[in-house]
Structures are given as C-alpha cells and as structure tokens.
Amino acid sequence: MVHPVKLALATLSLCAVAATATDLRPVVGQNELDGVVQAELRFSDGVDAVARYEPPAAWRYAGSPARLTLTPDWTNTASATITRLPAESAESIPASPEERLVWAKARAPREAEDVAFVSAPPGEMQIDGIEPKVATYRYTLIGRNIRVTVYLLDRKKEQLQFTVTSNDSEHGPVLLKFRRSLFTLNWGPQSGG
Q: Measuring CA to CA, which residue among 182, 48, 177 is closest to residue 128?
C-alpha cells in the first residue's frame, strides 16, 4: 500500500507538471494592432503565461489539451495539427537517408504505399525566436498522393509538433498559409489584449 503522504506528493507533482504545459484548448480573444482588430486564439501556458496565435483566415479549429486541429474551409483534403509532447518524449528528424525513410514510414498510415522522405531544409523560419526542425515526406493512399510537412519546435518543457497534411497538388498553398500563421505564435504574460 502506498503511504498517503507519498500519494499526495506524487499527485501534486503531476498537477504541477500538467499546469505548466501548453494547453491547446483554444480560448478566442482579440488582438488590436494599429486600429485593426483580429481574432486570436489563446492557450494557457502555466499560471502566469499565455500563448497567442492567429490561425489562417477561413480555417476552422478544434482543440484538446494536447492537440489543436485546423482545417481550411476551401478544401476537404487538407489539415494541420499542433501537437504537444512532453520534453522526454520529443522526436527528432534522423540524419541518414535510411533512418529518414524508417521515420517517414512510421508516421504514414499503415495502408500507405510508396512512402518516401522528401526533404529536411534548414533555417526555414523561426517560431517565437526558435528555429524548428523541419521535414517533408509523401505517400500514396487509396490512389491519392499525399504530402506531409512536419515542424518540430523544442521548448524547455515540451516539444510542439506542427504537421500539415494535404494532397500533393495543393500542398504548397496549404503549407504557405499555415506557415504564415505560425509567425503570429508567441508566448507572454497573461495580461493584455
């Protein structure tokens, strides 16, 4: 039997860890810049901090504590997700071609065919002052050519994974709209807006 004090301490420790992780359930707010008011999503990031994000225009969103899903209104074959992983579960993008193919196959649906790792370009962008790792892979599923781009953003307490999935033919425009929105993602104090 676990001693009640040890159980209470363990519970408090788990609550403290959970309280400091970015909670991806969005709260709708507004941001005003030079007289222009725009909708923004806010996420709790601990007791005194909040993450602010302006999703792409005409994209729907839904969130849970560990995942935000965004889908563009103009197509039903694309989506983007922001997923939170604890730092100890963080992923990395392999260096060797063989390991990259294994990585891509592990991420693709089990039924996917012709899985291929496409690229891992460096220095593409920064999110809140941090340069994420990025990789793109593709596969065929039920006759559709799918392309996926993944950004891995390592923060002290967690890793945020940004994943864009779409038909290969529309991946460029979908990725561009989502990437532009990531420039608005930043962390700061609770006050404001």
A: 182
